[in-house]
Amino acid sequence: MSTQPSPWVIEAEGLTKVYALGATTVPALRGVTLRVARGESLALMGPSGSGKSTLMHLLGCLDTPTAGSYRLEGQDVSRLSRDTRARVRNARIGFVFQTFNLLPRLSALDNVALPLLYRGNGAGATKQAARALERVGLGQRSAHRPSELSGGERQRVAIARALVTGPAIILADEPTGNLDSANGIEIMGLLTGLHREGVTLLIVTHDARVAAHAGRRLYMRDGAICREEAEHDVA
Amino acid sequence: MTLPNLLANALRGLLANKVRAALTTLGVIIGVASVIATLALGNGARAAVEASFRLLGADTVQVAARMALDDGALVAAGKILSYEDGLRMPNAAPLVKKAEMGVRGAAKVRHDRAVLDLAVDGTTADGLETLASGGQLQPVGWPEGKPRTAAAFIGQGRFFTASEVLEAAPVCVVGYRTALDLFQGDDPLGQTVWVNRQRCEVVGVLQELEPVDPAQRHRARSNDAFYMPISTAIRELYDEEPSVTITVYVADERRMDEAKAQIEAYLRARHGIEQSADGKYADDFVMTTRSDILGAQQAAVSTFALLLTAMAVVSLVVGGIGIMNVMLVSVTERTREIGVRMAVGAQGRDVVLQFLLEAAILGAIGGVLGIAVGIFAVPVAASLNNGIALLLPDSVPLAFGVALLTGLVFGLYPALRAARLDPIEALRYE
Q1: Mind telling me how many Å the CA of A232 is from chain B's nearest CA?
Q2: N or C end of chain B: which has fewer CB within 10 A?
Q3: B330 at interface of A, judged by CB pairs closer than 8 A
């Protein structure tokens, strides 16, 4: 952990990922350089196969790059072991998935508390989880299981789970992809609100309307960032 | 993850598939039940060996006629072992200090209107000492550790004498219960009873006796005894002269082999057994010493215990593979859950622990049920093994440990497999 606070949450230099497919190799990411400042909101766009999922996995410490370096809040996390990356994910990263990925047998509250339980001591986890659920407006539904909740509510639970650890950044992968437009708008409203409260946000999406909520938009093609837009560029 | 969280997790996982979990534990149940039965057999064998130590002294040889099956009935294979054989033995075999004899027959015993069907023991004058030193019975309330003397076994009167045995005198000694049944509270001494068609005088009554082993007390018929001089019993109870059992006391227990050789030579001469061409003798008698009994008993029990051990091992392996199989299925089914847990920060050991705990709980459930089945199986094992089985309380934690260990050992591979999943692949898994 760095001692001096870095203004950058994410500093990625020349991130490269090459997959071996039998005898041949497939480059998925060709030297992506990216900086995300604290409190920023960013949308990552591009067609499928453009490398945005791979970049998201690297930034989420789910994977390590073949080449290049990645600093998360000033700490180099590009060469860490599996278990250390798990600790980094737990402490610094909140994930929101397209398919929610809640555990079906756990209540909303237990789902939200889950990351805290992997911190070694679960003391106060329930209270913190309840607060996170209230923050996403689901304080009354905490005892329900995912199957008893609507799609929008499920995604709110997932967002609460991402928030509960107080992460450096929330990575949202197509957060509205499985929702109807009304629920989608609601979820984007919630994420925008959180951003206004100071949460750093990176959204991967196909949807230009979703991307429009972000302060900055990156477009990817063939494993590289090909274009960048700031908020004021949008009509 | 704290232990309560882990436990809650594991139980939730298992309860989601109750039937599957129950079927999985079946192998472990059988295995653990076999472990319990095996331990009971081992303990029983040890107890039986200890009992026979008491039964047959180190200085004694038991001689009996060799028996053979003839048309479904047990008969002497050659000549019978006669009363005469025993009487002359101390003279013919110098190392034989004393030869006690016994026969056991059945008779109708009558007094007034009381008629009893009794097992009648014909013994020599030492019969009561044999009973006392046998170590199976004691006077009721006998203090533990106090040596049991023959005198303490007589309640009233006396046992018959050596000369009464030689003369085949019509006398008898009755057990405590027998006396009550025959004389209804009258003084038994000097009374006359009919044994089949012979009048006999009651010269003694035994004390009320009980088995030394408290576990035997509820079913033993310790007080239905009826003793007569062996000579009288042979005359009155049998149409043909019966074989007797001879208990030989050797003068010097260190010269046991020598004594056995003397007895052998004496009986071969009396029974006219010649050495055959291959140097062997077709003996019509059998000699048994304490070490013979120990060896035979241990061999019988260990054969059976080996069988059960094999069964325990096989069923535990089968049960373990069942657990492994179910855990592998569970890991596959929950690939996505594992991915989610990893994404939010579960480390390898968290995942290993989660699945290992589930496997251990499966093993433990099998263990508890197996112990219950095993406790019911012990009497069955005993009945298949001459009643030699003894369940000791410390077998229970041992069997439980074995079950738990089975769960852990066979749960390890699925748990490691779960922990090695790639979180990205796992999250994509449909």
Answers
A1: 34
A2: C
A3: no
